[in-house]
Amino acid sequence: MLIKKLQHRMNGLAQANLLRQKWIAQSPTGTHQSIASSDQAISDNHTLFCSNDYLGFASHPDVLESLREGIDLWGGGSGASHLISGHMAPHEQLEDMLAELFSQFIPENRCLTFSTGYMANLAVMTVLGDSGCEIYSDELNHASLIDGIRLSKAQVSIYSHRDYEVLEALLQKSNSDMRLIVTDGVFSMDGDQADLSVLSDLAVKYDAWIVVDDAHGYGVLGEVGLGSIETTSRLCDRIILIGTLGKSAGLSGAFVIAHQTIIDFIFQTARSYIYTTAALPAISYALLTSLKLMHGPEGKRRRAQLRLLEGHLRRSLSTLVSEQSKFGVSITKSSSPIQGVIVGDTQRAIELSSGLHALGFRVPGIRPPTVPVGSSRIRLTLSADHTIEDIDRLIEGLQMLFKKMR
Q1: Which pLDDT tens digit goes with each residue over 128-151?
Q2: Which site among 148, 159, 216, 365 is 20 to 30 Å from 190 CA-CA?
């Protein structure tokens, strides 16, 4: 009965064009990669516009050399959870470095690292979202924040995307002595940013704290790459910052930085921290090199290149979409390396993605439940290693496909 019921549900997903497919990379992460579907015998070389390796550090020679050195020094797995025997010197050094980097924005802070951003978000939301807490969550927050909130015991209110007037009205009604405003820094599907200045004002006014998941802002935004909080003009000190190390930093892992009392409590009580094996120490060791690059001249140069590429892609997409607007095509209001081309219909998004694949581009079609019904799209992400020529070829491909779809 179980198999029959699950197959029936799978058939429903197929009819709604919501089945997902596994793609197998046959070469390292980069702007060009050999990839194949699970039923392909031969892989094809594609230009990727779907990786979150924003700065190109996943293939940076200094990072790779540091990873090899870390394996020589620290071996393979950590062997246990952080609280048993798995917390090693590279883990501690990484936490110290991150805490120092953000000390000017989050005073009296401490840092706690996790194996993934998903685990970090589960930890923060389940530990802080107790029965006496009220959570106010942007409707377009990442799935890991949403899942953490669902697992919490807090009273939850969802506010329309970036609608801070609605958020203030909700805060005004609160009777709780613990309030958490939860938001992405850069929203992963639209590429737009939370207004942390406005949220800071609301946090101070209504005695709330702000949980910021800056997975797509850290390393990308700011003069030295500290992300959304570095670019905020009015930032309060009530920030709980979550960031990932598998995107701009080019490796894997995540971190939470907040006031030391908050971090101490997460350390003592978060199940997704306590009951999991610590990450490979070699990764933490290599991240020390990656972060030095990210927040130094090399990172600054690559962020400048990203800005140049973003501007070119944005202008090219704007011209393209103006020609397609009567067909319901639009682009997201992005100010980041994430650019979405919204086509609305799920089947149309799949056809665009498949058509680009045939032309040698890997651009995923994004469908519900990842995005709201009626807002299916293709989602383009840039790396500093892309070229203007890569973008121009992509735009030519999109122009051709749109003409066929009319």
Answers
A1: 999 899 999 999 999 999 999 999
A2: 148
